[in-house]
Amino acid sequence: MLFSRSFDSFRSPFSLLGAVRTATKRAGGTVHNHGGSPGKRLGVKKFSDQAVIPGNIIVRQRGTTFHPGPHVKMGRDHTIYAVTPGFVRFYQKERMRGPRKFVGVVLERGEKLPRDEETLGRSRYCALVQLESQAP
């Protein structure tokens, strides 16, 4: 009897400490980048037939989803912005590898793009002011 009591105490190393706490939940993995970076706010900023002034951003994009048309330019990060005041127009032109999307600015609200230059002539914007028509 004396031998069995001393043998029981050596059987479990935790019998002297009491209850042992075990995990109730499985271990979870770690998260990479902790939710990622914020969005870059890309996309179309001015839609068709909206008025723009020089410097207004029309489209922010990665790559050339939209190509620049008349009276717009493309920045180094492919942002398309207006160069003249007018109204935004989106249109497609057939190219060698299929249709290509363009963005342009027209000077009058009713104009369409692409412009028929043979009959209508070129669309020009000259920021000139008639000095004789202004009263002193």
From TrEMBL:
Give one Pfam family: Ribosomal_L27
Instruction: State the source organism's domain of life.
Output: Eukaryota
Q: Tell me the leader sequence span.
A: none
Q: Name one GO molecular function term.
A: structural constituent of ribosome
Q: Which UniProt keywords apply?
A: Ribonucleoprotein, Ribosomal protein
Give me any GO biological process, just one.
Answer: translation
Listed GO cellular component terms?
mitochondrial large ribosomal subunit
**Listed InterPro entries:** Ribosomal_bL27, Ribosomal_bL27_CS
PANTHER family membership: LARGE RIBOSOMAL SUBUNIT PROTEIN BL27M, RIBOSOMAL PROTEIN L27
Report the family membership: Belongs to the bacterial ribosomal protein bL27 family.
Q: What is the protein's given name?
A: Large ribosomal subunit protein bL27m
